[in-house]
Amino acid sequence: MQKYLSLKLPSRRLNAASPVARHIPRLSTVCAVAVLILCVAPELRAAQGRSTQASPPSSSGPLDEARSSLKHGNTENAIRILSNYLQNRPQDASAHTLIGQAFASAGQNDRAEEEFQMVLKIEPDNSIALAALGELYEQAGKPDQAEPFLARAAKGGVPQIRLEWGAVLAQLHKYKEAQAALAGVSPPADPEHRMVFHRVKASVAVGVGDAHTAAAEMEKALALKPTDNGIIMATAVAELQSKNAKRAVSLASPIYSQTHSPQVGLIVLEAELESHANFHPTLNQLRSTQLDSSDEPAFRQNLAALLISFGEYADATVDLQAAVDAEPSRADLLYNLTLAEFRAGHLDDAAKNAQKCKELGDDADLESLIGDIQEARGNNVEAAQGYQAAIALAPHDEKYRLALAVELIRHNNLDAARLVLKQTQEMQPNSWHAELALGMVEYFSGTDEDATRYLMHAADLAPDPATALKYLGDVQMDRASAPDAAALARLCQYSDSQPQDGHMQYYCGGVLFRRDYVTSDKSHADEILKRLRVAEKDLPKDAEPHCQLGKAYRWLEHWPEALNESKTCVRMDPNSADAHYRLAQIYQHMGQKEQSQSEMKLYENASMKMADENAHRQATIKTFIYTLQNPDQAQDQKSDQTPETPDRK
Q: CA-CA distance, 407 to 384, in Å (whole number)?
């Protein structure tokens, strides 16, 4: 069963076994390519006319007469004159160029191509013939054949030829080459030529990912032709890409009001969603658009895709339901509706539609989604059964086994999770996800040495070891005994290779501190403080670097610094029992008994909020599950979701 053919649903799990949507480009991206690039070449030709007009050759009666006929649109007479002339002078490149232009004007492109090829046999570097051939191929929809001729012609430095070459390169998605081709080309003096120039520059900027420049270039083009709806919409799309959504709304809304075009309406809707404006009037108007019955499902899916990309799941279910009603036998539409209902929290509706979808055809994605739905409904047994069914349908796909393991970890069934993960490991021996999950299961079980071994192996296997190393750092900092020497070396080695990564500087400095605290070795104090200060600067919203610095300064008996850092730690993480306890000790040492007593009361209150001594591990379980489900966002959330426990030191 194929899914997500036209719907973009942001995935809930990327490394676990929840169904993952196949992303389609955002509407604005699609429009940017179509409007800014594909429509440039015709306007380029219209603006500059034929870039291949030959320069007047040396005085020649027949050629002058033919040129005059061409100028007045009498191509037949020009062809007759030139044909007679070439019978006696077959090696005259100027004559072949003129007759090639005449054939092109008459629409006889094959004959024109033959003549320009003849010119190149006589004069291989003739820029007029090269440009003419490039233009012929580009007109015929063959930009790959046009590009090398235009590249050769552009060596002559003619701005118009370089501009057309850049436009063709953009059509071929060779944006960096197009950028180089246009480098140093000044905007033409003629307004029409200048407008096209800015559009080509905008299309290239879109291609290289420079949305700000693309918008600026389109605004310049719009200033030259402010009433052209095509340019207005292209500018709106460019501004939307540049995150200037309010400007995009102001440009596109009047055109939508005039034309009621659903394509324009979708752009207005995206701009309103992006700018957090009230989008429902536009959405309702789009829903009332009269379409052919065959077009309705796809249009509704596009609406839903756009809404879902902004997290508007409840609204999206309305359009997906309409698509399902129009084509009830399509399992992919029903599946997408079920997934959107799940995202919207409409769990009962999602469960019902999941069963309907199963009747149309079962697969692993659907069973995994059923597991997600049942987990959200609090039906743990049914959730596990869903994930197990997904595994049975796709036994060699690790994501479904990982999803079952996550479900078991969530409910502290660590032995069963370990078994599932070891099976995954046997089937996929190079799976860093399985190694990472096994490491965390061992950590949650209290076997730090095994956890260290698995996490180091996960870092070896992962294309980017940062996630595994950060959990390795957590394990080392949470150990009652001295940290593992090999783990410390690996953390600091990676930290040295990523000097601007505040997280890794924190882990290296923090684990170094734990090692030296246990052994009472203060010879590395400067390095510890240096790394933690880098982390403090790089992670301004993270309490942990301040907390670790407070501990380190207290250990070194730098009391004013210990006090300042510990106060910052408490301010940023007021629920940290350890931070309050440490601050109370510092106040007591400095003779501030009243403040010390106050902090001890806060420490006692914070301690009462902790369920037990494993509170840190329980919080890490939640963070780890979040990491598997949302790997792109987990790093930013990690510090906020991992509270500190009373210091074991």
A: 7
Q: Which domains does the chain possess?
A: 27-239 (1.25.40.10)
Q: What distances in angstroms separate CA 526 from CA 87, 486, 552, 595, one per listed residue?
A: 91, 21, 10, 30
Nearest to 154 by CA among 177, 131, 174: 131
Residue 545 near residue 502, CB atoms below 8 Å: yes
Q: Which long-range contacts (CB under 8 A, 24 or more apart) does 580-585 make?
A: 580/606, 581/646, 581/647, 582/550, 582/551, 582/554, 582/647, 583/550, 585/554
Residue 575 DSSP code: T
C-alpha span between 603 and 575 (Å, rounded): 9
Q: Are 453 and 472 in contact (CB under 8 A)?
A: no
Tell which phi-psi region holds residue 243, choosing left (phi > 0), alpha (psi between -120 and 50) or beta: left
CB 553 within 8 A of CB 561: yes
- Which amino acid, one-letter code, is at 285? Q
Amino acid at 517: Y
CA count, 13 A, side-chain hemisphere, 299: 19
Angle (CA) 77-83-85 rounded to 5° is 105
Q: Say how far apart CA 603 and CA 475 lie, in whole Å.
A: 24
Q: What is the DSSP letter of 427?
A: H
| Residues 44-92: tens digit of each pLDDT | 555 544 444 444 444 468 899 989 989 999 999 999 999 999 999 999 9
Lowest mean pLDDT across 419-433, 544-558, 609-623: 609-623
Please say whether the dihedral angle defined by the alpha carbons of residues 504, 509, 510 and 512, taken in this order, is positive or negative.
positive
Residue with tokens 């299961």: 441
Q: DSSP string spanning 519-547?
A: HT--TTHHHHHHHHHHHHHH-TT-SHHHH
For the segment 203-250, what is each residue's pLDDT rounded down to a tens digit?
999 999 999 999 999 999 999 999 999 999 999 999 999 999 999 999
CA distance 171 to 169: 5
